[in-house]
Amino acid sequence: MAKGILNIIKVNDTKVKINLQKIEDEFSIKKPAPINTTTSLKTPAKPSKISFLTSQRQQNISVVLGKIRMKIDDIIDSFILYNTSKLTPKTCELLL
Q: pTM (2 decimals)?
């Protein structure tokens, strides 16, 4: 007959002291921190889309780029290389 661990060790469970407060503290669900309603009401809602340009400014840029009829990369290269054959004073005025 196999002897279990409890059969080998004599346990006197009448003298066991259990700290119920410590058990409750360890295994209970912690209360969430109180929400400060004054700061939560003052926070503005985040915009769904962040844009550096207004819609009107974006439309104006599209119109100017349509008049110039050059790719953005070509415009940038013309500025960097100071290519006056592609980038005339009139197109520079349009871009400003």
A: 0.39
